[in-house]
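>> received
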Amino acid sequence: MSDERVQDDAPKPETTPRGRRLFRAGLIVVTIVVLVDAIVGEKGMVALMRAHDVEAAARLDLETVRLDNQRAIEQARRYREDPATLEELARRDLGFIKPGEKLFIIRDLPPAQPR
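>> returned
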């Protein structure tokens, strides 16, 4: 049986100072590119901040619509259930009056012509 072992004592190529500098410069450039992309890229911090602003505006719009909806529901309930509301609506919009009331129509007269 032959006992052949891989020698680990083979001389290793030494890295030159120039090679190290190029490696470091390349690593710095890659790091800067990744950071810039993380900040202003398509899914970066700036896009995230814009998305938060859009979400806040949408939430505000939703709350406004909900409040308007609640007011409309309450107004519809009053029209169905409250006779005083119906009476006020009929008087205001349709010009109705109760029996025994008198209606006075006041018109603006043009200024009197001098004679």
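>> The first helix runs from residue 17 to 40.
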